[in-house]
Amino acid sequence: MKKIIVFVLSLMISAFAQAETQATSQSTKAQGNLELGMRLSVAPGISGVYQLGGPQSVEGLLQFKGGATIVTGLYRYNFGLISPEVPGLSWYAGAGAHTKIINGATVGIDGIIGLQYDFDEIPLNISMDWKPAFDIFGPGGGDFHADDIAISVRFKF
Question: Which of 48, 82, 133, 141 is buried most deeply by CB count within 10 Å?
């Protein structure tokens, strides 16, 4: 487990360093399809978003909570701008599935709804979302988790 955490942290540090190096050159160019950053919640972890094109994206989460490791995959539909006065602010909703590993594996379903702000000048976005989850199979099957409210900060590549 410690090797995984060290590997993930090393990956994030190198991604942040690369993003900082490219920030100036990318501010005038269109951003890529990949976003990578940190998710701060009751189950903190790493968030990666891949833009599929148009309003669709997928998000992958690697989270840690109470000794458990949780891997989540989500499909997100991005509904676009909320207000012309705040051009970078948009909202999204979606659904997906998770696997939680602690004393066996638990499989469940997830929903997500949130707000996201994309900065124009730098390749960065900040989001706040709510991600309820329902464990279906495995230890803890039948449990509903409504406590995952998070703030995520992601660099765009």
Answer: 133
